[in-house]
Design goal:
The protein has 184 residues and is of the alpha/beta class. It has one domain (9-182): 3-Layer(aba) Sandwich (Rossmann fold). The chain contains 6 helices and 7 strands; from the N terminus they run βββαβαβαβαβαα. The strands form 2 sheets. The chain has a 5-stranded parallel β-sheet with strand order 4-3-5-6-7, sandwiched between helices. A two-stranded antiparallel ribbon has the order 1-2. Strand 1 (2-4) and strand 2 (8-10) form a beta hairpin. Helix 1 crosses helix 5. The radius of gyration is 15 Å and the shape is globular. The protein starts with a strand and ends with a helix.
């Protein structure tokens, strides 16, 4: 979805994966949902941030690659952020990266937290732990979080397509992208 007011401004999506393993199923979930949102929002721009490539460098304040990842996140309107479930919560790598943002540092962004887990007993973690972290950072979570069981990964792309259709407009509206585009 692009907005016109003399010029076009695309909605910017970032798929952020907080799994310490590269090309994980968690990464795939974020990319799949962000891709479906991108299809629903013609003209949008999608980028990926996979924290596995940064590892402990997320803790180094002057690391150029970590700072580049922060910049990508700050330029987003909509963040699709995924994490594996570790001890009924999100990954330490993701938390360390998000600690780079100050209080309300994600203001003006819509976020979709996704957690992948092996047991249904952990399904509350996405809305009890992950969503509140994003809210503390100023992001809005208008559609709630998604918990995906490992057994459901194979059918996620079909689910993601319908979810994106149903929620894209809400995410754009909550992010303020429409207001910023028309304010120019």
């Amino acid at each position: 979805m692009t907005f016109q007011n003399g010029s076009e401004r695309p909605v910017r999506l970032v798929a952020l994966s907080g799994n310490p393993r590269p090309q994980s199923r968690t990464h795939s979930l974020a990319v799949t949902l962000a891709t479906e949102l991108s299809r629903t929002l013609p003209g949008s721009v999608l980028t990926e941030v996979e924290l596995s490539g940064l590892g402990s460098r997320v803790l180094e304040p002057d690391d150029a690659a970590a700072q580049a990842a922060v910049t990508q996140v700050l330029e987003a309107d909509i963040l699709v952020i995924s994490s594996p479930t570790y001890k009924a919560s999100y990954s330490g790598l993701l938390k360390s990266f998000l600690d780079r943002f100050g209080h309300q540092g994600l203001t003006g962004k819509s976020a979709v937290p996704i957690m992948l887990g092996g047991l249904p007993t952990h399904q509350l973690a996405v809305n009890l732990h992950f969503s509140p972290l994003l809210l503390e950072l100023g992001a809005k979570v208008p559609a709630g979080g998604l918990f995906v069981l490992e057994s459901e990964v194979g059918g996620f792309s079909s689910f993601a397509a319908g979810w994106a259709q149903a929620n894209a407009a809400t995410l754009v509206s909550a992010s303020g992208a429409a207001r910023r585009a028309t304010a120019r």
